[in-house]
Inverse folding.
């Protein structure tokens, strides 16, 4: 991991869950909630979040490395579309399209805190 990626990782870990623990959906509905930071079965460090589907809760993940790629892309391009999510976050995308809203809200929050300004 290079210096820029390490800085992004540090900012994400400082942000979640202390300042951002709920991730509002992009349209409407109950927000997704932070569950934990942990390693998945393949040894990837991930953000786990909870999706409420009626009565049942589902745990989903976004690997930190994918969040770093998304944040790096966003800082350079100034955009983060669903197609960017699908390309940059294939594991999170496989877990479900709700990961796009979570990643988007994280990038939005980092941007609001001027993390990407030079």
């Amino acid at each position: 991991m290079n210096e820029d990626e390490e800085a992004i990782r540090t900012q994400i870990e400082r942000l979640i869950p202390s300042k951002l623990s709920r991730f509002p959906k992009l349209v409407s509905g109950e927000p997704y909630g932070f569950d934990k930071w942990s390693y998945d079965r393949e040894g990837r460090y991930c953000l786990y979040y909870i999706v409420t589907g009626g009565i049942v809760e589902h745990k989903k993940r976004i690997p930190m490395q994918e969040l770093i790629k998304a944040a790096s892309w966003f800082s350079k391009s100034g955009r983060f579309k669903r197609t960017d999510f699908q390309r940059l976050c294939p594991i999170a995308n496989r877990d479900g399209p709700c990961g796009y809203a979570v990643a988007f809200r994280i990038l939005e929050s980092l941007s609001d805190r001027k993390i990407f300004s030079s």
In short: The chain has five helices and four strands. The first helix runs from residue 3 to 15.
